[in-house]
Amino acid sequence: MVDLTFTVDAQGTATPLTLPIGKAVIAGWTGRDPVARDKHIAELEAIGIARPASTPIYYRVSARRLMTADSIEVCGGDSSGEVEFVLIGWQGRILVGLGSDHTDRKVEAYSVTVSKQMCDKVMAPVLWELKDVIGHWDQMILRSWAWIDGARVLYQEGTLDGMLPVKDLIERGFGGKGLPDGCAMFGGTFAAKGGIRPADRFEYELEDPVLKRSIRHAYDVIVLPVLG
What Gene Ontology molecular function terms does this protein carry (predicted)? Predict the structure, then answer.
């Protein structure tokens, strides 16, 4: 279990909230459009990563991998981030956040499950109430930028109508029982523009064009040497 401190932004009212997160789930292959989903699968196959056993699929990771830091340390130069919305169950409510499923791609080539444990998952320190955004959920936008060789490039972008609806995502992952309290679930990602590649810094956002607000975060990637 890990305690993470957030600010809950309820349409202008900011409330601090420390959440004990006891379960972390990374939902994969959650695309609503099978063509877009298969594009991302093909993208990973191109770098040697096998197709998933099912779509969607729900990987468990250690809750202690979740953090809200502004930098992470990784082993070697084969990892990269992925922007995702995050759903957190808490006292009968569902809160919406933003995270990066940073993953070691070299390890992913032989085991996706193991690769998910290799890197920290960095979340933004701001949450929204799901009830405030569910009515226009499909209009919200996920974006990420990668700093590569000193240049900031748009890395991912898409609207949430490209992902499974929240209700379906939760029902499939938890047998229709709802999102448990203290569970953080990453909701899937979009294909990378120009292909998956490492970066020195990863920036990402969830934009709500209806309520005209965004959750943003960024972190530096510190590469540790691999000596054997």
Answer: catalytic activity
Q: Among positive and negative, which fits the CA dihedral 60, 65, 68, 69? A: negative
Distance in angstroms (rounded) separating the CA atoms of residues 221 and 29: 25
Helices (H), the chain: 34-45, 105-108, 112-118, 130-133, 166-174
Residues 6+ apart with CB under 8 A from 61: 24, 25, 26, 116, 117, 121
pLDDT digits (tens, 9 = 90+) for 20-67: 999 999 998 898 888 877 877 787 788 777 788 888 999 999 999 999
Q: Please state, in angstroms and rounded to a whole number, the distance separating the CA atoms of residues 57 and 30.
A: 8
Q: State the Cα angle at 99 between 196 and 22, rounded to 5°.
A: 125
Q: Where are the alpha helices (DSSP H) in 46-161?
A: 105-108, 112-118, 130-133
Q: What angle do CA 54, 56, 57 make, to 5 degrees?
A: 70
The residue among 75, 145, 68 whose CA lies nearest residue 106 is 75
pTM, two decimal places:
0.94
Helices and strands, counts by H and E, the chain: 5, 17
Residue 222 burial (C-beta neighbours within 10 Å; 0-12, 13-18, 19+) = exposed
Q: Which residues of 53-88 are buried (b: 16+ CB within 10 A; e: fewer)?
A: eeebbbbebebebbbbeeebebeeebbbbbbbbbbb
Report the distance separating Cα 192 and Cα 155, nearest Å: 5
Domains, in order of start, for the chain: 2-132+160-191 (3.90.850.10)
